[in-house]
């Protein structure tokens, strides 16, 4: 999925970046962006382009460029949504997203990225859930609040008491309809908070 995310100024120079996977050399990213995006003819400019098997996905906002890169044939629609949602989250923190506000809140922007994306995969875009996990100290807001532990807050569970089970259990139920050749798998879960689960389904045909 997404390997790295950059915020570039209007000249293509990096303001900040976060390398999520460490699988792409980053020293030529800015140069490739300038050569294939900023210096290209206007009629040929595309928000998505590939250089040396690395896909570049670009979202322009104001005088900045939000750039996501990944190996090969990544899901560019998902990356584009991530870039747009990232801008929306910054708006809720700073009000107006500019190069100056990003530079003034450098560490906060990186903290938000760490909460929103884990190893290149999107986690949450919800501002209320992010504000519950990330200490809000932007220059727009003078008040400070104690930082709660980042336990993966979910916005739609804010007013629900935590649920704890003595044992984490998962019960799968398989339903087969032979005439229409339809299979469905239903799962009942009893899990405390947000537990990581792996599921392996094997099919065996009786002779």
TrEMBL record:
Transmembrane segments: none annotated. Pfam families: Clat_adaptor_s. It comes from Blattamonas nauphoetae. SUPFAM superfamilies: SNARE-like (SSF64356). This is AP-1 complex subunit mu-1. InterPro entries: Adaptor_comp_med_subunit, AP_mu_sigma_su, Clathrin_mu, Longin-like_dom_sf. Its main location: membrane. Residues 50-134 form the AP complex mu/sigma subunit domain.
